Q: What sequence folds into this?
């Protein structure tokens, strides 16, 4: 049976795999060949994505190093996201959606790490293993952000709607402030997990994390409170609003509608001024 659209636990049990082969193959290919600008943000050619999906779907082991895929590396990244998006029960599961969002919305900042790990340990074993594999892969990709412009926040932005979904939101197809906040919360959850991958997946007791002074705990994102509409919005809000149109709850999705990634805040620029020849000579005296 095809891995696409199949329940993760059932598929892994029937195939004898620890993590889905399609995810493992795509991740290994991208780590070797896909350290390029906009990986996972830019979409591949639709026909290549469909061809690759058919090859994986027929239980083949596609040769991703074929020229057609090496020339369209983004189609492999697109397929990887497509696989996650089509899981009948998302990787972080419908059942735990509220617990994940509450962990970053209502917990004191210093308690979020233990709370998130508690929720992750409630995942079915197949989902836990697959999530750990994917998050470690994405954290590795984030380490090349100087080459790809895809640091943890941008990776969370494009991956969150594929990993963390709400049945209620999908059923009602809500938009506006509610959809914006939902997408923002999803992004914060995934970004938090990416930034704490080693602490979360250390197989230790969650309670030991709170008092472990040897582990550096990165400051987490705090959620913005909903406020009346304003003419000016921050870059993050603009990105999140643009992503809201891509949410799986909406009937029409366009993978490539994310905004261009801008340099991180604090990037320094300098201006070079050309001096006329006569002034250049004076300055050299």
A:
């Amino acid at each position: 049976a095809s891995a696409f659209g199949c329940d993760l636990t059932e598929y892994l049990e029937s195939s004898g795999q620890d993590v889905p082969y399609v995810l493992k193959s795509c991740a290994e290919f991208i780590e070797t060949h896909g350290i390029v600008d906009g990986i996972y943000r830019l979409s591949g050619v639709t026909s290549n994505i469909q061809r690759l999906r058919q090859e994986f779907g027929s239980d083949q082991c596609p040769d991703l190093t074929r020229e057609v895929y090496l020339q369209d590396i983004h189609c492999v990244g697109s397929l990887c996201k497509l696989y996650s998006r089509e899981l009948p029960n998302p990787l972080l599961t419908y059942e735990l959606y509220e617990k994940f969002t509450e962990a970053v919305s209502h917990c004191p900042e210093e308690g979020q790490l233990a709370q998130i790990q508690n929720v992750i340990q409630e995942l079915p074993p197949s989902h836990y293993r697959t999530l750990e594999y994917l998050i470690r892969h994405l954290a590795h990709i984030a380490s090349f952000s100087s080459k790809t412009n895809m640091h943890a926040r941008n990776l969370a932005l494009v991956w969150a709607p594929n990993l963390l979904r709400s049945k209620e939101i999908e059923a009602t197809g809500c938009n506006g402030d509610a959809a914006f906040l939902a997408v923002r919360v999803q992004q914060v959850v995934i970004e938090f997990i990416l930034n704490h991958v080693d602490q979360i997946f250390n197989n230790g007791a969650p309670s030991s994390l709170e008092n472990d002074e040897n582990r550096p705990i990165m400051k987490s994102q705090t959620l913005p409170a909903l406020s009346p509409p304003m003419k000016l919005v921050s870059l993050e809000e603009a990105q999140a609003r643009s992503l809201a149109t891509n949410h799986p709850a909406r009937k029409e999705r366009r993978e490539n509608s994310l905004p261009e990634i801008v340099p991180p805040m604090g990037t320094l620029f300098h201006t070079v001024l050309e001096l006329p020849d006569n002034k250049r000579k004076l300055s050299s005296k």
Remarks:
- The radius of gyration is 21 Å.
- Residues 90 and 163 are 6 Å apart (CA to CA).
- Residues 204-273, 279-285 have pLDDT under 50 and may be disordered.
- The chain has 16 helices and no strands.
